[in-house]
Amino acid sequence: MDQMDRLFLVFKNLIHSSLLATVALLAMPSFAQRVIPLEVPGAVVPATKTERQYFSKAWNTEVVSGVTQPSLTVYEPPPGVVAKGLGVVICPGGGFMALSINSEGIDVAKWLSGRGVTAFVLKYRLALVEGDATEEFQRLWTTDKVHLDALLQQAIPQAIADGHLALQYVKRHASEFGLTPDRVGIMGFSAGGTVTAGAAIQYSADSRPAFAAPIYAAASALKQPVPDDAPPLFIAAATDDNLGLGPDSIHLYELWTAAHKPVELHMYAKGGHGFGMRITGLPSAQWIDQFWEWLTLEGVLGK
After folding, report:
1. Does residue 55 contact residue 65 with C-beta atoms inside 8 Å?
2. What is the Cα–Cα distance from 287 to 67, expressed in whole angstroms?
3. For residue 210, which of 23, 30, 87, 226 sits 20 to 30 Å off, Cα-Cα?
4. Which of these, 108, 107, 119, 123, lies nearest to 159 by C-alpha position?
5. What is the mean pLDDT of residues 218-232?
6. In Å, what is the CA distance from 234 to each residue of 1, 16, 199, 205, 284?
């Protein structure tokens, strides 16, 4: 084979590889998304934008902080995936000072939308702090619980109110997303689990979720009685939760069982806090598959 033949073979292989790469890229699911601002009645949005997204070294993940206006990012089923007509509002966690936007938000939304569920990642209002919100949370958690509690007392009611706003918006606009209002649920992680539990225990007719899934939620402060028409609950947490929130999930489970309402609880021996969609190799990483099985068992997917 002379030099010209060798060059021709190299170019042929390069073109073939490029075509294969292009086909593979086109075959990948494309997750349609758009951002919808949520208007908070009576709230004044600061003129200076404080929301920012960055990689947190303290939490080893991408986060969002400084949210002053809530919003929904929509992930609809990609082309080729049959839409199930089911909607889920997803509330990332982050101590009400940041949002773990990937493993407790976007990654969950992509997993669900890839299976035909329309997912809405909620950015709810957060406590505003100077500098890196994740580092500040850790500092306050370990050295100044009094200041942290003061911040949370203001942030938590706002965040739960944003959860209600999100459910109201999606239910009101359900037809635009190919949904029906009685097939819109909510799920959340850690602080987002608190938002989820709050939405499941206190709601109006236009914000009642069809189901709720608080994952390693902080929920011990919820003292309201379980409503007569309370939605079914899926709960997951780890016994070795770093923040000691395992008992909060048991508390929620006991509230629902005492009220004779549908509930499923998964308490994993190991998993720590914040496992979300992280690949850990532990049984706790299977929570979302078990959540999907639970949706099937409850008849949510088959309506």
Report:
1. no
2. 28
3. 30
4. 123
5. 88
6. 66, 48, 14, 21, 14
Q: What is the CATH number of domain 31-297?
A: 3.40.50.1820
CA distance 303 to 298: 10
How many helices, marked H, and strands, marked E, lie in the chain? 7, 11
For residue 56, list its beta bridge partners: 61
Q: Cα 42 from chain centroid?
A: 26
Give DSSP secondary structure letters for 215-235: ES---TT--SPPPTTPPPEEE
What is the Cα–Cα distance from 181 to 158, expressed in whole angstroms?
A: 24
- Phi, psi angle pair for 184, to nearest 5°: -125, 120
Question: Hunting for tokens 């005492």 — which residue is that?
Answer: 258
Rounded to two decimals, the pTM is 0.88
Tokens describing residue 302: 């088959």
Q: What is the pLDDT of residue 31?
A: 52
Amino acid at 265: L
- Pair of tokens at residue 235: 């709960």
